[in-house]
Structure formats: structure tokens, C-alpha cells
Amino acid sequence: MKKNLVSVVVRTKNENFWIGKCLKAIENQLYKNFEIIVVDNNSTDTTLKIIKKFFPKVKIVKYKSKYFLPGKSLNLGISKAKGDYIAMISGHCIPKNNKWLSNFMKNIKIKNIAGCYGKQEPLDISNPADVRDMYYLFGKDKKIQKRDPFFHNANSIIKKNVWKKFKFDEKTHHIEDRIWAQKVLEKNYRIIYEPKASVYHYHGVGHSHNSLRVKRISNIITKRSEIKKRKIYAVSVIKNPIIKKNKEYLISEALEDLKKLKKIHKIILITNDKKIRKAFKSNKIIFLNRPESLSEEIFGPDQILRKIFPKIYDKYKSTHILSFEEIYPNRPNNFFKKLIDNYDDNYDCLVPFARYKDHNILKKDDTSIEVVFKSNLPKTLLKHSVFREVKGLGCIVRGSNIEANGRESKNTKFFEVKDKFAFKYDPDLIKVINKFQ
Fold first, then answer.
1. Which residue from 110, 158, 214, 391 has the highest number of Cβ atoms inside 10 Å of its Cβ?
2. Pick from 89, 90, 92: nearest CA to 18
3. Helix, strand, or coil here: 156?
4. Which CATH number goes with the domain that contains 85?
5. 355 Ramachandran zone, left/alpha/beta (phi>0; psi -120 to 50)
6. Whether 282 and 149 share a structural domain
């Protein structure tokens, strides 16, 4: 067997329009040390005839099961492979150029890398929804994933020796690739996204928003999430702790509520203040120093969470963060419990929002003031509802999202709270009010 041989496993099902283009593009690769294995799922068109006539060196493996299971199909093909590395591509995907395999090999040979997946690009005939999804999911920046289990077997490569330890799930109907990725990440392997290893894929991951497929995938994700328990850590960033008129810390009530919840593993207070550390000694509370590089007021919770989350994960293996801020003194009864109960694993974040009842909203920069929303109508007659996020009241964020985006995500679930709970404690304003009382 040749060293660094790549076995390219191509899955097909009635791909007579695409298979010739796919295999020709593979044969034209600059990296020549490979074999091609087609795993065919009972094609009834001319797919196999095209392969046998124009690509006689391709090994054909027939998947004979009545019900198609993607993991079982891949395991079958890989079991026939001679290579040290397994590249996987769908029969209707076409490598964009002759460096596709070379770009994969540069990454997969790195120690501790279990797999690498590449970019997927649309065609002129692609559904607009699929075009949008591909541009969102497959960006221009290369990245190394330590916790994010996104992986896609339509265009990827893995090490065969890793596959021998972690084979693809043969029971699931979908997302066998992400299930596999989750397993290897938990064993401290890494996954690379390499945008230079690109293919054309006319329907991408969305399959033109096939509702039945989406529902099945959602059910799989939800069931797996129920099996794997969340490990939630509550986190608050505090610079100068606020003390109320009765000399009690403003954050006290929130801490007491969180300490009662069994689903909160620990409460982490990120602060350099020595007094608050003495005031809240508890087995459930952990204190971490605020990084000196983020000591200025301009740095908010998002920047600090992104900076410090890797440390929290490495030490405590937290899957989710419940972020809250001391400046929100009014929370609904049992707010944190309701927040946890309402978290949906199909989303990256759960964020509260409140109705903004003021008539006029203006935006100001260094040179001008711009009207965002303005009305002279009574509030009862306003047709438009304006809302604002109140993340500081308390929001739950998936750990893998924090490092990349902080508490921001396009995949966010919102829930409404009454506007009175969006009140922020302003020490300067309180001083003015107390002065005139």
C-alpha cells in the first residue's frame, strides 16, 4: 500500500447528471495518490453504466439495504478502502479546482486533527434559500474547531485510524457527520474548516428547505440533546460592585436565586474587587480575575466572556453559560428557573426582550442625529411595536457560540418580559433622586 494514499469515497443515488463531472474533476487533481470508491444506493438510472464505461478504475460497492442510512453507507465504503485518509464527497458535488485534494491533505496530516471539511458553493440553478444558507455556513476564513461539532460529509476528509475508533452512527437517518464530530471533539481531537477545499453543491445543506428533512434533523438533535446533559455555569462580570442604600450588594438577590437551582453547576463572578470576594464566600461561587487587557469600561460582557470562556471550558467543561448583569435589579419571580426550562437546544441563545414604549428613538454619531423611530401618536394607537434585547437580565448561550460571537447569534430564540423588568440601575441617577427626597 502506498504511503499517504487517499481513498475517495463517493456516495451515489441516481446521479447520472452529475457523476461524470464529479469523477472527472477528482481524476484531474494535482494530488495523484488516490483511489476512488463509489458506494451506490440502488441507482435506477444510468449512474453505474457511466462509471463502468468512462471510469473503469473506479471501485463500485453496492449498498443493498432497504432503508438508506448515511453512516452505514460510509462505513461500508471505508471498510473497502486501502488509504490512510478517507475523503468523502457526494456524487452531485464537483471539486472547484485541481487543488481540492491537496488543500485537504495539508490539513489532515496535522497531528491531533481528526477531520477537515471544505467549502460548498452554489450554482446558477441553486434555490435562492440554499444559496443564502451556503454563504452563511461556509465563509472565507479558515478555522480550527475545538468545541463546535459542525462537520459535513458532502465534502470532507478524515484519518482512517480515527475512523477505526469512532465509526459513523449506523442508526441515524441524518447528521451522522455532526454526531461523529461531537465524539472526536470530546476526545480532544480537533476539526478544521478549509475554505480552499471547495466544491460546487447545487442544493448545499438545505435541500431547498425540505420540511420533512428539517423536521427529522430537528428531532434527532433534540433527542440527542436530551441524552447529553447540559452543564450550565452562571457568569457575571463585575468591575465596581454596586451597593444599595441599605449597604447590601445589588447582586445579592440574583446570587441567592441562582444558588438554589440544581441545574446551575457553579456561579462564576469575574471581578478583581476584594470586598465582594469576602462578602460572597460559598461552595457554589467561583471568582475569576478580570483580565487586565479588558479592564477599561469600554469592554463589555461580550468581549470579556469571549476572552475568558476557553479557561472556563478547559477547567469545568461547561456546555452553556447563563450570563447576567448586576445592573438589572428587577427580575420576574423564578426568572432563572424559567430561563433554563425554556432553553431550546435547536438554538444557540435564549434572550429576553421587552417592549420599548417611548415614542421617539434617535441614533447619534459624531456629526449627526438620525431618527430611527418617531411618532406623535398616543401609545394606545401606535401600530408599530419596538422592542429591545435585555441580555443582562439573564440569557443562556451555547458555549461553542461564545468564543466566536459572544452572546450574539443569528440562531437566537427570544421571549418577552414586561418592560418594567428591563429597568437598569444607574447609581448616578439614584444619587440625584435621593438628594431630592
1. 158
2. 92
3. strand
4. 3.90.550.10
5. beta
6. no
pLDDT above 70: percentage of residues in the chain: 84
* Partners of 93 in the β-ladder: 201
Query: Going by DSSP bridges, is the β-strand pair 190-201/232-237 parallel, antiparallel, or unpaired?
Result: unpaired
Euclidean distance between CA atoms 303 and 270, whole angstroms: 13
Check residue 220 and give its pLDDT.
Answer: 45
Query: Of 172, 205, 227, which residue constitutes the final position of a domain?
Result: 227
Can you give the residue range of the structural domain that contains 23?
Answer: 6-227
Is residue 1 a part of any domain in this protein? no
373 has a pLDDT exceeding 70: no
Do 182 and 161 share a structural domain? Answer: yes
The string of pLDDT tens digits covering residues 78-133 is: 999 999 999 999 999 999 999 999 999 999 999 999 999 999 988 877 777 778 77
The CA-atom distances, in angstroms, between 393 and each of 286, 353, 418, 419 are: 20, 9, 12, 11
Q: Which residue has the higher pLDDT, 435 or 329?
A: 329
Query: Could you tell me where the beta strands, DSSP code E, fall in 324-385?
Result: 349-356, 361-364, 369-373
State pLDDT tens for residues 288-346: 988 888 777 777 888 888 888 888 888 888 889 999 999 898 899 999 999 998 888 77
The three cell numbers of residue 251 are 447582586
Separation CA 349–CA 400 (nearest Å): 11
Is residue 214 located within the same domain as residue 290?
Answer: no
HEC states along 270-293? ECCCHHHHHHCCCCCEEEECCCHH
Which of the listed residues 178, 203, 227 is the one where a domain comes to its end? Answer: 227
CA distance 55 to 49: 10
Number of domains comprising the chain: 2
Rounded Cα gap, residues 149 and 190, in angstroms: 10
- Tell me if 120 is assigned to some domain: yes
Distance CA 332, CA 230 (A): 24
